[in-house]
Amino acid sequence: MTTTLTSTGPPSAGKSATGRERNRYAAQAGGFAAPALLLVTLVLYLPFLWTGYLSFTDYTGLGNANWVGFDNYANMFSDADMRTAMLNTLYWVVGTIALPVGIGLALALLVHGLPGSFWYRLPFLLPYAISGVAVGVVWTFILQTDGALTQALRFLHLPGADLQWLIDSPLNTWVMIGATTWQGAGVNALLFGIGLASIPPGPVEAARLDGATGWQLFRHIYWPMLRPLTTVVVGLAIVGSLKTFDVVWAMTQGGPGNTSQTLALLMYKRTFIDFKWGSGAAIAVFLTVITVVAAGLYLRRQLSEAKAVN
What we know:
This protein is mostly helical. The chain contains 12 helices and no strands.
């Protein structure tokens, strides 16, 4: 009986070679990522750190920045304009989730399965190609005092002709949310339409054979399968609503007075109109923290619920 011995080398040789190869790949990946990280640092993190520093000063855009500690933050929360801006921003969050997202989902469901469904969504998608300022200009023409809407209601003898759409508060905020809905519902319909098209036909056909129709199909088939996409759409809506600026500035500039201004608009006014850069920086930091926390909590909750279901 002959025994053949095969030399395989030290047991750790293969592992160490693999480790060196992994480190080499990591170093190469880091080299490729370094320019992007440097760019992000220069255009995002450094300005935020500078803004955070200014929020603790009384800087006015000229001269030296004197350290004032937390005075800007204390004054911010005791400011009536700040409370109005926070309430209006809350309106924007609720309205932007309920209207553009809700209407977009309804449009996608209505045309789902119809021949040429894209062409039904196209008229609602076109306003998305318009900038926010252009949307504000168009709807200002419609909603201004004695504007197109008022004249149409008066001609048709319908109620509402006496309303001051852009003057009365909080009506002015809600009609601006309506203008944003006109712009954003179409793209949400497109996204939900793509999500519906990706649903496999098997579960839908099985549910229909069991007698499910309408609301039952939506609740038990479409909605659970659209949930990952809905998480993304609603998350983007939350972030966008917290940063609302262009439509409000184009339509009312936060007025009359400060009744329709948002946090982003108040930040702009404090910095570039009142030249209170420290106060504006404090609002910017507060708005950034609120946006990150709100989006993070929402996404974390949705992802944890999805894991629980799976």
